[in-house]
Every structure is written in C-alpha cells, then in structure tokens.
Amino acid sequence: LKEENASLRSKINKLQIFSETQADKMRKLEKKLEENKIKEEKEAQDLEAMVQHVEQNLQLMTKRAVKAENSAAKLKQENALLQVQLKNYKMENEALRSGQSASLAVVKQNADLALQNLLTVITNSRSSIKQLVSGAESLQLVADLLKSIDRISEMSEDGQ
C-alpha cells in the first residue's frame, strides 16, 4: 500500500508539474494574443487614418479638376468669341483691300489686337490644360493608393 501511495504521489507530482507547465504556456499564449490584438487595432487605426487622408486628398483633387474643367470651358468659350472676332477682322481686311473701308492703319491695329487676344487665350489655355493633366495624374495616384490599400487589407485578412 505504501508503494502504491508513493507511486500515486509521484504521478500526482508529475501531473502538477505538467499542469503548471501547460498553465505557463497558456499564459504566454494569452499574453501574445493580447499583444497581437493591440498591434492589429493600431494597424487598423493607422490604415483608417490613411484612408481618411486619401479621401481628403481625393476630394481636394476633385475640386481642382472641376475648377480646371470650368476654366477650360470658359477659355473655349472665349476662344470661340475670339475666332468670330478674327473672322470679322479678316472680312474687314478683305473689304479694306477692295477699297471699301477705312485706312490700312486701322486694320493693322485691329489685327494686332486680335493677335494679342489670341496669344492671351493660348497662354491661358495652356495653363488650364497643364492643371487638368496635373489633376488627372493626381487622381491616378489616389486610385493607385486605394488599390494598394485593398491589397494590404486582403493580405492581412489572408494572414489571419
């Protein structure tokens, strides 16, 4: 009976040691799990902040693009008016050549004014076109960022 008691006590001691080892492992795993949860929450907050920043940039770039489009439309309208004016000046020039109008100096002055107006429109048009191109490139960058965010979130979901 004493031998059996000693054997059972030995088994109990081994089981207690094993139980303590398992409890230690469990505590370590719980601690690691908590650390991972905190890390994932921080990453999610960082990602959310980045998404908000990208959305703000997208809104700003959209406003710029709309402004540039409005400017381009205005310049097109101005260009059309100047083309009509140029056509009128050409007709007046032809009339002068045929001797039906005022002096050659007035025609030259009108032509110079038309040329100045056309050069101004061209300069403004180039600026607006550059703004539109810049806005389009910025929107492409934002789209690429949003695609990469999707890939990041897909990768983090696959990793879990």
UniProtKB/TrEMBL annotation:
Keywords (alphabetical) are: Coiled coil
| GO CC, alphabetical | centrosome; ciliary basal body; early endosome; midbody; recycling endosome
* One GO BP: positive regulation of protein localization to cilium
Question: Which InterPro entries is this protein grouped with?
Answer: ENTR1
- The reply on keyword Chloroplast is no
| Chain segments annotated as coiled-coil in the UniProt record | 19-92
Q: Which family does it belong to?
A: Belongs to the ENTR1 family.
What is the protein's name according to its record? Endosome-associated-trafficking regulator 1
- Where does this protein come from, organism-wise? Leptosomus discolor
